[in-house]
TrEMBL record:
Example GO molecular function: zinc ion binding
Keyword Nucleus found: yes
Gene Ontology BP term (one): DNA-templated transcription
Signal sequence residues: none
Region entry Disordered, spans: 59-95, 295-320
GO CC aspect terms: nucleus
Keyword Membrane part of the UniProt annotation: no
Organism: Fusarium oligoseptatum
Keywords: Nucleus
Domain Xylanolytic transcriptional activator regulatory: 10-84
Places the protein is found: Nucleus
Principal cellular location given in the protein's record: nucleus
Protein known as: Xylanolytic transcriptional activator regulatory domain-containing protein
A Pfam family annotated for this UniProt entry: Fungal_trans
Length: 359
């Protein structure tokens, strides 16, 4: 559903499913309830799947996920087992397999969800946000656990290669997005921390890895799962950066990566670019393209000029917004029962201050 519908209905449906799971008691581990090993393990898989999807659905809209993993949920993580390893007649649960299974990517997703849950509790549930070193440690722990899970994967086997590549850019995304959020929490008015070439290259690395997956012939049968991991955050940051610094040394490369990703996502997908996020991203794309054409696309700037553009360009973006062609009117809003985004976008904040918590 998340692949074919980019509207908020996905996040709402995930929330309903999560509440239904709680009402059934899935937030309590089946072993502690005296259930059979088979039933307890299936419940674990379901519960963690709901939590992970709820977090991913919320992040599409810049919504924090307070329903993520927390101490009140006493559910063990599922084991790295094939479906064939489980049966209703089993008396004991087998130990996790050291190699790849179709649970491997889900287990990595669980580590990412747990890290996001910890970061949320630290960043938005305390009076003083912990320092960058604390955030980095949480990300490092998630990265180490993900690496341990992936050790048994053989990258020469296409499905396992796909697992490794997706897992890697999920960890990178956790680091990039949480770092940006931490900077916003500590220094919300300092723009110099987001419009940097290092931040751009980090986001570009993730987007290019995702793009490269589409060029590997062996991964063609698994393109469907790639669509379940849309790179809204990376595209958003890259386009926002290009609006602020259209003359950077990596501007052309970054814009080409965005164009390739948008073209790939839209290829063969009816209505793939409809919905809230795509309206914003398309508008930003038009803006970035105009700024790059005006300032000379891909022209390398001296370090001092780049620094000046970082501090001064966002205000110029606001002042020049009337010159931008309105691409919004060409997008039909796909969700029913929600406000028309075309109306909301009339006061679209070109300086993106209202989107700090998205990226």
């Amino acid at each position: 559903m998340r692949v074919n519908n980019s509207g908020r209905a996905v996040w709402i449906m995930n929330g309903l499913a999560l509440r239904a799971a709680q009402s059934m008691g899935l937030h309590r581990d089946g072993r502690k309830l005296g259930l059979s090993p088979f039933e307890a393990e299936i419940r674990r898989r379901l519960w963690w799947h709901f939590l992970e999807r709820d977090g991913r659905g919320g992040e599409d809209y810049g919504l924090q996920n307070p329903s993520g993993p927390n101490p009140l949920y006493s559910v063990d993580q599922p084991r790295n087992l094939h479906d064939s390893d489980l049966s209703p007649e089993m008396k004991e649960l087998p130990e996790s397999r050291p190699g790849w299974t179709r649970m491997t990517l889900s287990l990595v997703n669980i580590q990412i969800a747990r890290a996001w849950g910890r970061l949320f509790q630290m960043g938005w549930s305390t009076e003083v946000t912990p320092g960058e070193d604390v955030r980095a440690e949480v990300v490092k722990e998630a990265s180490i656990r993900a690496h341990e899970i992936l050790q048994g994967c053989n990258p020469l086997i296409p499905e396992q290669m796909m697992t490794v590549v997706i897992a890697r850019f999920l960890v990178q995304k956790l680091d990039i997005v949480s770092r940006r959020q931490w900077q916003s929490l500590h220094q919300p008015d300092d723009r110099r921390f987001w419009a940097t070439e290092n931040n751009l290259l980090d986001a570009l690395s993730v987007l290019e890895q995702c793009n490269n997956m589409w060029d590997i012939e062996d991964l063609a049968p698994y393109h469907w799962i790639t669509r379940a991991f849309p790179q809204y955050h990376m595209i958003f940051y890259i386009l926002r950066h290009l609006c602020a610094c259209p003359r950077g040394p990596n501007a052309s490369r970054a814009f080409e990566a965005v164009e390739k990703h948008l073209a790939t996502v839209n290829k063969g997908e009816k209505g793939a670019h409809k919905g809230l996020m795509w309206t914003v991203l398309t508008t930003l794309r038009e803006r970035a393209m105009m700024m790059m054409q005006r300032d000379g696309e891909g022209t390398e700037a001296e370090p001092q000029e780049v620094s000046e553009s970082i501090e001064g360009r966002p205000q110029a973006v606001v002042d020049d917004s009337r010159d931008v062609p309105d691409p919004v009117s060409h997008h039909a809003y796909a969700d029913h029962g929600l406000p028309d985004w075309n109306t909301l976008l009339q006061d679209f904040p070109w300086d993106m201050d209202d989107f700090n918590m998205i990226f």
